[in-house]
Amino acid sequence: EEKQDIQLAAVVTKVTGDLAAQAARKEIRLEVQLEARESIFRGDSQDLERIVLNLVSNAITYTPEYGQVKVSGKLEASSFYRLEVRDTGIGIPPDEMPRIFEEFYRASNAKKEKKDGTGLGLAIVKVTVEKYGGKIDVSSEVGRGTCFTVRLPVIRLAG
Known about the structure:
Elements: E1 4-7, H1 8-25, E2 29-34, E3 39-43, H2 45-61, E4 68-76, E5 80-87, H3 108-112, H4 121-131, E6 135-141, E7 145-153, E8 156-157
Parallel strand pairs: 2-4
Antiparallel strand pairs: 1-3, 3-8, 4-5, 5-7, 6-7
Helix pairs in contact: 1-2, 2-4
């Protein structure tokens, strides 16, 4: 596993760019707002891409047509990059929130929506975030949307 210095904002920009067509098909407004473009993270770029891809792709999948997905990134307390993926999707029932990071777990309303998925994405995201000493949090309201917040350690600022 090759660790390298990675510009966090560049990865977020690349992945959200790759997912723009998926959002456009559902006429979802995909908004990307990145501050702290120079935040440097040390790790595997595929790990980082997987985190962003899973979160943003889920947000698009579980947001109905004409909804909105907002991805924002900024430096927090100078040592963490805070990535937030917020959607106007179906939300997660409160009683199911503690289980969403379990392998193969899928929320009941996600199953009802007949969305494809293995239930592995969020489990992988959590393990990957924690592998780098990061943290992931989620808040959600059924019928209103969900917000995932990932904090990853920044080793330095470029430039």
